[in-house]
Design a protein that fits this description.
The complex is a heterodimer of chains A (about 110) and B (about 110).
Chain A (H helix, E strand, L loop, with lengths): L3 E4 L2 E4 L5 E7 L5 E7 L6 E8 L2 E4 L6 E3 L9 E3 L8 E11 L2 E6 L3 E5 L1
Parallel strand pairs in A: 2-11
Antiparallel strand pairs in A: 1-3, 3-8, 4-5, 4-9, 5-6, 7-8, 9-10, 9-11
Chain B lengths: L3 E4 L2 E5 L4 E7 L5 E7 L6 E6 L5 E4 L2 E5 L5 E6 L8 E8 L7 E2 L3 E6 L1
Parallel strand pairs in B: 2-11
Antiparallel strand pairs in B: 1-3, 3-8, 4-5, 4-9, 6-7, 7-8, 9-10, 9-11
Classes of the chains: A mainly beta (about 110), B mainly beta (about 110).
Amino acid sequence: EADIYQTPRYLVIGTGKKITLECSQTMGHDKMYWYQQDPGMELHLIHYSYGVNSTEKGDLSSESTVSRIRTEHFPLTLESARPSHTSQYLCASSSYREGADTQYFGPGTRLTVL
Amino acid sequence: GQQVMQIPQYQHVQEGEDFTTYCNSSTTLSNIQWYKQRPGGHPVFLIQLVKSGEVKKQKRLTFQFGEAKKNSSLHITATQTTDVGTYFCAGQKTSYDKVIFGPGTSLSVIP
C-alpha cells in the first residue's frame, strides 16, 4: 500500500473562507494530481504536477490553485469557498512502472461549504 | 480529445452471478489500468495491461486488453458482496500523457 496522506479528512466551513487542503507522499513520486469527485461519480482532474515548480490545470475548471515547492508536498488552496465547492477532493501520486503510470490515491478530504 | 467510456454505468447482480464491465477508448492506448473504489473509500489500483490481447487473472477477476489496444474488459466470476464498489478503467495514450479515467461502473451485489 502506498504512503500518501491528506489532511484534513473532513472539513465544514462557511462561504467565503480561504482553505488549504494538504497532500503529502513519501514515495518520491514526481507526478502528483488533484481530483474532485462527488459520491459515486466520475473522477475529475483539476490540477496536476510533473515535478517541483511544475503545475498544470486539469480538465475540470476550478477556482482552486496549487503549488509544488517540494517533491513530497502538493497543497490545494481555495481562496474563497462556495457551496458549489462541496465535494470530495482526492490527491494522488504516480509511479511509472512496467509500462504505465500507476496512480496511488490518498484517503480524500470531504469538504462541505455552508 | 481522448475519451474513455465505460458500460454499463450501473449493474445490480445476485450474489453468485457473473459480472462484466467494458471500457472503450476513442484512441489507441499504450496501457489500461483498472481501479476499484469501495463505497466511502478511495480508488485502489488493481492491475495494468500493456500488451495487445493481454489477459490477466486475479482470483475471480479476469482482465483483458483488446487486440487493437482501444478496449478492455473486467469480468468477475461468481460475485460476492465484497465485490461491491465502483470499477474504473484508466488509460494513457503514451507513457508521457496524462492518465484518463473512465466514468466508472458501479456494481451492487444482492445477497
